[in-house]
Design goal:
heterodimer, A: 157 residues, alpha+beta, OB fold (Dihydrolipoamide Acetyltransferase, E2P), 5-stranded mixed β-barrel, 4 helices, extended, disordered C terminus, B: 247 residues, mainly alpha, Four Helix Bundle (Hemerythrin (Met), subunit A), globular, Heme exporter protein C (chain B), transmembrane (chain B), cytochrome c-type biogenesis (chain B), membrane (chain B), Cyt_c_assembly (chain B)
């Protein structure tokens, strides 16, 4: 390669390397702000601020959903399989909301450690499959005595 | 290899060869895209969780993948502009930037349309969606910067630097779903693993992706030809081409 071009190429590579380091350090420093939500372990550990609008995310615990018969109030627990946080919400839930499904809730943590949500969004994973396959997988996991009913897929949220 | 690379320096050579290849890109691309889209939208099985609304994946994933690939291509062309001062690289960046802008917009739009019924919201400021929006602005910035500078050579260099600066955003888009908590799910297609969906779903998806890439190839060729004709309008071969239709 021509020496001038070689020199230009080195400059370009240095520019790219410098930029990447700058951006990597910035995003690393801001990682807590870039994270969309706190997970239940962080909330239990007291990392989430109380009475500040935050998002909490995780899996809706099996058998934890309690619907109020009089109103739209719903109570459930959100878990990451090591800790769980009680959530209450008044309003219409997205279609995908179900036990064993990932959600992200927006709201405030009160001082009793309950999360009072004013918005609940459903999260889905990248495993798409036809209903028959999902049924078959669910049957197989039930006959194996697995506790996660409806857990046709690995627990990602 | 080097000889081919040096030949690329001649806009006339590229013009001649691309007029021959472009129609094949178009036919191949249309064939794949139509097959993939019809198969995906009408015949692929529904999803157990999302029902039919997941079918927007057959448009969303191809546009999102192409949006990022086009930017990587532009940045590579930017390196060529800065190091080798090759005119054709600049012609490429200028020709495809608007295409990239439209494709990125489509990816964001289809994502929003998909997000409303599944997540429950059109938009959320999570890392994936935000970095993709930054990509849209980067395309806009490249187009604006190019238009703002009158001198062709200075414009080429400024734009090349901007594409290089922006390329840092691409790994952020790609890995945002793994580095941070996001509402967006992880990637559907991974290079190292088998896709986590049955073949009746991923084959049509792959066809649409390949089809869209080929159509992009055609668009890039045609737009580059126009740009070359504009830039070389005073040269003898362009005058000959205009009068005889031959290169």
């Amino acid at each position: 390669m021509h020496p001038i071009r070689k020199k230009r190429l080195t400059i370009v590579l240095f520019l790219l390397a410098g930029l990447s380091i700058a951006v990597a350090l910035t995003t690393y420093a801001l990682r807590q702000n870039i994270n969309l939500f706190y997970d239940p372990s962080q909330i239990s550990a007291g990392e989430a601020p109380v009475d500040v609008r935050i998002r909490a995310g995780g899996m809706v615990e099996q058998g934890s959903v309690v619907r109020d018969t009089e109103s739209l109030k719903v109570e459930f627990r959100v878990t990451d399989f090591s800790h769980s946080v009680p959530v209450e919400y008044v309003g219409i839930l997205p279609d995908l909301f179900a036990e064993g499904q990932g959600i992200v809730a927006m709201g405030r943590l009160n001082n009793q450690g309950r999360f009072v949500a004013d918005q609940v969004l459903a999260k889905h994973d990248e495993n798409y499959m036809p209903p028959e396959v999902a049924d078959a997988l669910e049957k197989a996991s039930k006959s194996n005595g697995s506790a996660t009913a409806g857990g046709a897929k690995p627990a990602t949220y | 290899m080097w000889q081919f690379f040096h030949k690329l320096g001649s806009p006339k050579w590229f013009f001649g060869i691309s007029t021959r290849f472009a129609p094949w890109f178009l036919t191949g691309g249309m064939l794949l895209l139509v097959t993939g889209a019809v198969w995906g939208l009408a015949f692929a099985p529904t999803d157990y969780l999302q029902g039919d609304s997941y079918r927007i994946i057959f448009i969303h994933v191809p546009t999102a993948m192409l949006a990022q690939s086009v930017y990587i291509m532009m940045a590579s062309a930017g390196v060529v502009t800065l190091v080798w001062r090759m005119k054709l690289a600049d012609v490429f960046v200028k020709a495809v930037a608007p295409v990239g802008l439209v494709i990125t917009f489509l990816a964001l739009f289809t994502g929003a349309v998909w997000g409303k019924p599944t997540w429950g919201t059109w938009w959320i400021w999570d890392a994936r969606l935000t970095s993709m929006l930054i990509l849209l602005f980067l395309y806009g910035g490249v187009i604006a910067l190019d238009r703002a500078i009158n001198d062709e050579k200075s414009a080429a260099r400024a734009v090349a630097v901007l594409t290089l600066v922006g390329v840092v955003n691409i790994p952020i888009i790609k890995y945002s779903v793994e580095w941070w908590n996001t509402l967006h799910q992880p990637a559907t297609f991974k290079l190292t693993e088998k896709p986590s969906m049955p073949a009746e779903m991923w084959v049509p998806l792959l066809l649409s992706v390949l089809g869209l890439y080929l159509i992009f190839g055609w668009l890039a060729c045609v737009r580059m030809q126009t740009e070359i004709l504009c830039r070389e309008q005073r040269s003898r071969w362009v005058k000959e081409f205009v009068t005889t239709g031959r290169v």
